Amino acid sequence: MKNIILISAACLLALLSTIGASLPYPILPPLFAAEAPNAFNNFLGLPSKLLFGLALTINPLGLLIGSALLGPLSDRYGRRPLLMRTAVGAAIGHAITAWALVIQSYPLFIVARFITGLLEGNGAVARAMLADQLTGALRLRAMSWLNGAFYLGWLVGPILAGATLHWGVTVPFWIAAAALMLVAVLVAVGLPRETPSLLTTSWWQVARDRHSLNLLRHEELRTLFIVQLAFTCGVASFYEFYPLWLVETAHYHAQEIAWVNVGLCGTMTITSLLAGGPSRHAPLLRACWYACGVALAVGILALGNIWVGIAAIVLFGIPNALYNTVIQGWCAERFSAHGQGAVMGLLATTFCIANIVVALSGSVLTLIDTRLILVAGALSAAWAAWRMAAWRRQLAGTVEAKARQDFCS
Fold first, then answer.
1. Taking the model in full, what pTM does it have?
2. Alpha-carbon span 183 to 189, nearest angstrom
């Protein structure tokens, strides 16, 4: 029963955090595309498209910073307190976002979305909590289910927004705020209290000295970062630009793109729910296979026609979900000495960095041809697969050499 509550709390938190991040996507375009200028879409007389771009960017920027900081902070202050406070804080952030829309305050909206994104970086804390409390096959399955909750959030968020908008533009945010408060209650009731830390360092010192990127001082974790960055650049090129590919290739509109997204998110969710079982193959070998699958799907999307491309988009969800399950479980086992919060934070931060890198490079390459950023993403994921295979051989050689040395001594 204890494990059921633990996994349920983590998955519900992941689902609602992702819903909160994805809620604005169908809400904001009409607000900034409105023909009549107002204080919100014409703030300081700036172009509405510029204001719209900032409104979309500010939440992921907060998520990037939160992913790097919250995991290590939870290593110091405990998972339960951090999850409770960030859930309540994110709920307040959604409420302030709703109020900013009511009073048409663009600056307040931007601040609220940034703070909400910062606190929604608690996904690293949820993963670290599962890595702490669970072991073996159950840990892998729980992390896979957690990933499924994240994927499902990207599907449910826009649907929730569309289904409740007729009651008012602020209603989706109030629903998200109420749900996050319920999650905070579930965390408070379901998770055991942790022994308070005897350290007296301030949170600012912990954030400064123990943020996830500090792990790059270690050689193996630098290798992990480089491989993961290459892989996630491939994934981000797919996520960010397959809608544009659909528009340019088949002249799809928002509704058709939404249905393709349903197929993709549904595939990832189902795969995550079924993944995580035991395997006789080494984790890095499986991760290499799945990275090859991702590279193949992105490459097919770049070079295929519309129907082949749609099949690649939907099937992309299978290797992507399997890869994340394997690599997170392997990292939890191999790098636990560095703090589960910091390690999971590094994985989340790497994905955020990849999104920024791909967005900047893609904005240039798409001026020539949208397929170029997809080809670049496929090559990046393929390189990550090759590097993982080499890394696995290197680790196996190190273990074999150590075994021979121990035998001789």
1. 0.73
2. 10
